[in-house]
């Protein structure tokens, strides 16, 4: 069994929590793209874990892997391992495997990322973690891989070829290259390579062997579909492919192996950084979503932009990922808002459209068309089933399911592991949709 989980919006949908919830049913959880620019926050028994590169399946004892599609920061990875061990979670080679082909984020990548963003007139909103430059070097065949850190002679030979051009570019951008790769840093990276040597594996071989043996494997994505480097809102995207198909290339697993794809969807929508967000709310409702939902980035701490649920964007995500099911998160954050709006279409140049336009500049001009629903005031933190939800909350969940034409299998009503319930297999959605016609 091979399950792929991706974020269906702009990231921060709660993927870490859902992976943590489901991981106990899987033998392996593998990360297939991105770097430490992404973050998954998981709350377990009062402890808050902020993971940036290690899959959150580690929290329930699953074996976890970091695939070759990932760009790896060895410094922050070691910090993560230390954090987990301090909280009583042992990270051993039996529990964590890192593909030897994973690209390494070098100090000069971080310097170039920071200097490039500062020099841009129109900011992208990068996390300045060096991700884009690490991926660029992969395409240019100038990358440093984990396997290179395991051999000092090869590592130093590659640096000798790569470093002069990097130093020149850093200097042109106003940086000081002498501080980027001193001998001390090179020695530290070689020491990290020695520590990580025992974790180096061939993830493609191990995952395919596991699937053939009948074991269950989950592929965990970072960021969200709408930040995909090809299909997202260019140029305000991440530097990797965030859609389900990327799990096959990022882990080395053929598409015929895929069993199901799960999309994680927030009950509203958020975005970090620049780029279009048609339903953005710069008012007291937006402030409510930000404060109640604690919408601040796991990696950067930046405040997320918030808006009403956007159906046209989700339709695109469904097409790009081929979702077989959805998990709906943070419905509790909507408590106290009345009415609640769902964006069901856009108006663009006087025409109503129900799917995002091709061009990012046109999406930025789209005006949301809303359907209005009644809200609820009841506290949801102790809700354990769909039937325990207030009637209007049930109506909201079912309306989204009906509009998406994809079954919602999990609903989250709070940050805790225990605050997510599985939907019953048999439901009567029509009885909860009697009010939804308003505004359609």
From TrEMBL:
Keyword presence, Cytoplasm: yes
Cited InterPro entries: Adenylosuccin_syn_GTP-bd, Adenylosuccinate_synth_dom1, Adenylosuccinate_synth_dom2, Adenylosuccinate_synth_dom3, Adenylosuccinate_synthetase, P-loop_NTPase
Cofactor binding annotation: Binds 1 Mg(2+) ion per subunit.
CDD domains: AdSS
Cofactor annotation: Mg(2+)
Pathway: Purine metabolism; AMP biosynthesis via de novo pathway; AMP from IMP: step 1/2
Record-linked PROSITE patterns: ADENYLOSUCCIN_SYN_1 (PS01266)
Protein residues bound to IMP: 12-15, 37-40, 127, 141, 223, 238, 302
Enzyme superclass (EC): ligase
Keyword annotations: Cytoplasm, GTP-binding, Ligase, Magnesium, Metal-binding, Nucleotide-binding, Purine biosynthesis
Chain sites annotated for binding Mg(2+): 12, 39
Pfam families with a match to the protein in the record: Adenylsucc_synt (PF00709)
Subcellular location: Cytoplasm
Keyword Plastid belongs to the record: no
BP GO annotations: 'de novo' AMP biosynthetic process; IMP metabolic process
Chain sites annotated for binding substrate: 298-304
Enzymatic reactions: IMP + L-aspartate + GTP = N(6)-(1,2-dicarboxyethyl)-AMP + GDP + phosphate + 2 H(+)
Coiled-coil ranges per UniProt: none
Gene Ontology cellular component terms for the protein in this record: cytoplasm
Residues annotated to bind GTP: 11-17, 39-41, 304, 330-332, 412-414
Superkingdom to which the source organism belongs: Archaea
Subunit record text: Homodimer.
Protein task: Plays an important role in the de novo pathway of purine nucleotide biosynthesis. Catalyzes the first committed step in the biosynthesis of AMP from IMP.
HAMAP family on file: Adenylosucc_synth (MF_00011)
Protein's recorded name: Adenylosuccinate synthetase
